[in-house]
Amino acid sequence: MFSARTVSKKYGAVQALDEVSLDLSPGEVVALVGDNGAGKSTLVKVLSGVVTPDGGSVEQDGRPVRMNSPHDAQRLGVATVHQDLALCENLDVVANLFLGDERRRWSVLRPIRMERAARDLLASLDVRIRDIRVPVAMLSGGQRQSVAIARALVGEPRVVILDEPTAALGVEQTAQVLELIRRLRDRGLAVLVISHNLADVRAISDRIVVLRLGRNAGEFRTAESTPEAVVAAITGGVALAGAPRAGTEESA
Amino acid sequence: MSTLAVLLRKPLQPLRRPGRTDLGAWPVVAGLVVIAVVFSSLNDRFLSAENLTNLALQMAATGTISLGIIMVVLLGEIDLSAGSVSGLSAVIMTILSVNHGWPPLAAVAVALVGAASIGLLHGWMFTRLGMPSFVVTLAGLIGWQGLMLYLLGSGGTINLPFDGFLAKLSDTWLPAPVAWLIAVLIVGVCTAAALIDRRLRQAADLPVPSITRIALRLGGLGLALAAVVTVLSADRGVPLLLVIFAALVVGLDLVLQHTVFGRHMYAVGGNAEAARRAGINVTRIRLIAFAAASTLAAAGGILAASRLAAVNQSSGSSDTLLMAIAAAVIGGTSLFGGRGRAYAALLGILVIQSITNGMLLLSVDSSVRYMVTAAVLAVAVAVDSLARRGQPR
């Protein structure tokens, strides 16, 4: 269990996060939704060690952990796939998967070892790329997203954070990536997906956490929620009749 | 992204991605064949052993400088100071060994270390002060040439003794048996490496290249080496200068392809931000690249001084720089960074020097020579840009 506990962060006069809490459990996909400026990216930055919160804490299995740098996050087993993927398009899939973490003997690369591990990893995720030795620039958007996600797994993390994984993809490629996210869950990883696309969110998440104006604005079990209730929580509007109101505005 | 690359970049629209095949070095090789056919039909001395030996000698110095250029161009940057640094280093070496009577190797070492510090200074200005590499090295181009002229003083020319170590460097020829032995060793090592690699890949259950393919590649290598040794041995022998240059090319390519440092060079050239986030020390890579570029430029300058047996005010003139950059690009190094191999220096300089050499044989005016070289360069960059356009951004 990996959690943020009443985390607050202020940028100047702007309260980006105001006592926000979030739990991530193994084998569960949590969707983090909210309007622009709701604090989604700040929360992701806190969880990935990019930003240190002013108040509250990040906890692992109930104990507060030090989270002051991306390196700390990595050490704790939190891997983040940013929206821009951060792939080197001139390098092949194998090189990208092991970028910065190359298998080596002294300073000499061990290409065979890396290629074997890359093929095993991609096969276990059922990611199909015809030739993994071609530059990433030659791959489709969905394949690149898959490579970026697979790369997050090279360090064997416990938590994977995906920032807008389907934002730039077509229908078929989105389906591929969603399938891949399900596979991450089936591997027992805790997955946090940030998305604007509520259809995708409903398709893959087990739980939906809504942020609004830097605060927790609702939490739903996806299977038991209605789209209207989620939208209402995001916009702060009144839920339509019959929709359960699971907001946590009381904490405000 | 270097200023030059930005200047060169047009608003390119991504096209559909057809099954784009990487042509690799074949266009350049085809160009070389065309050059050989054209010049040898115009002048039968072009393909003579003597002329090809001269060609080999002419290539080494500028080719080595070009190798340095490739180091920075791989990062998507540019080094305009390479010519000046080559001239300055040659002058420093000559002054130390001739005027101060230093042992030649010590003088060479000081010149190389001095150039490395110059490169580090460029790299520091680029990484720490955030100056565009174009401007940093443009200042270097002017400034280091100024320092060279200052050191040369009013005399303007310093001769290297003809029988000294430094001049001998470019007047040493491998006896045919030694050259053949080296060629056989190279093919042997490559064969062993290919077979071992194939077996290891098989053991790891990875796809392996077919034996025919390996045999073809090694056969091609063997034929090329045999042709070079046969032709050059028919004249004075394989020049040591060519061996030095080739060794530098092969050594640098091994570093770029097979070490963690090389992988990080390509990563920084491809996407510096991604490299940084992957934990690569981008600043360190850049500093090393600039230092390597200046050091190789110095090595080229020393080879040039050895061949001329002198340094003078036109050592490392702007012509040298432009030819070195052109060679890197013609050989297939992308100015946008991240693509190209060390062999580009060898292929590119071979093209440029063949044209220069052929035109000199035909006693064509240098004006025409420049225009033809420019056309070849333009075609090479156009090919690079079109190849890049085929890729989605």
UniProtKB/TrEMBL annotation, chain A:
GO terms assigned for molecular function: ATP binding; ATP hydrolysis activity
SUPFAM superfamilies associated with the record: P-loop containing nucleoside triphosphate hydrolases (SSF52540)
Keywords for the protein's UniProt record, in alphabetical order: ATP-binding, Nucleotide-binding
One Pfam family, short name: ABC_tran
Domain ABC transporter, first and last residues per copy: 2-238
UniProt KW Ubl conjugation keyword: no
InterPro entries: AAA+_ATPase, ABC_carbohydrate_import_ATPase, ABC_transporter-like_ATP-bd, P-loop_NTPase
Signal sequence annotation: none
Protein name (database record): Monosaccharide ABC transporter ATP-binding protein (CUT2 family)
From TrEMBL, chain B:
Coiled coil: none
Keyword terms, alphabetized: Cell inner membrane, Cell membrane, Membrane, Sugar transport, Transmembrane, Transmembrane helix, Transport
MF terms in GO: transmembrane transporter activity
GO cellular component terms listed in the entry, alphabetical order: plasma membrane
Keyword Transmembrane helix: yes
Function: Part of the binding-protein-dependent transport system for D-xylose. Probably responsible for the translocation of the substrate across the membrane.
InterPro entries (alphabetical): ABC_transp_permease (IPR001851)
Any Pfam family the entry gives: BPD_transp_2
Spans traversing the lipid bilayer: 23-43, 55-75, 105-126, 133-153, 173-194, 214-232, 238-256, 287-308, 320-336, 343-362, 368-387
CDD domains: TM_PBP1_transp_AraH_like
Localization of this protein: Cell membrane
Membrane topology: Multi-pass membrane protein
Name of this protein: Xylose transport system permease protein XylH
